Amino acid sequence: MVKKERIPRPMPIGEKIAWILLDAVILYYLLRVGFLTHPDARGVGTHEQLGMPPCSWPILYDMPCPTCGVTTATSYLLHLHPVRAFLTQPFGMLLALSSILTVIASLGHLIRGESLLFRLSKWNWGWILLAWTLLLLLSWWWKVETWH
Asked: Model-level pTM?
């Protein structure tokens, strides 16, 4: 069977602008977390170093919220402690890693002028959303089980 060669779709100007803006937002967040925080040893609360208030969920319910530890896991990952990041909040570590990979992929497509949206449109987003939702719920379970 002869493999059909894929002809890349050119990236329209609107898509270029969108990826540049998204990359800027992601990089801004990652650089702020990477340079302005140190992972909180409690596994939560690192976001407070960015001027945000403490999460009210643990105060109200005596348990972590579904995203407790995401900033701390991101900080651990950016400080090159991936295992600690994963153990702190698996969803947060994978979200940070996927953010980094998104920037790399979009920059590669920007340089080549190929539409990343066209490539992403071929993915099965229903299954991806389901997987991310299950990952969030499992990570929340993990956070509750390891809550101090």
From this structure: 0.86
User: Structural domain tally of the chain?
Assistant: 1
pLDDT digits 0-9 by tens, 109-127: 999 999 999 999 999 999 9
Structural domain boundaries, residue 34: 13-145
**Residue 8 domain-assigned (yes or no):** no
Does some domain include residue 3? no
Secondary structure (3-state) at 95: helix
Q: Where are the alpha helices (DSSP H) in 63-89?
A: 70-78, 82-88
In the chain, how long is the greatest CA-to-CA distance?
A: 62
Note the pLDDT tens digit of each residue in 48-87: 999 999 999 998 999 999 999 999 999 999 999 999 999 9
Task: Find the DSSP H helices in the chain.
Answer: 13-36, 57-61, 70-78, 82-88, 90-112, 116-120, 125-145
Which residue, 26, 24, 4, 22, is CA-closest to 117?
22
Q: What CA–CA distance (Å, rounded) separates 17 from 30?
A: 20
Closest CA to 72 of 58, 94, 56, 88: 88
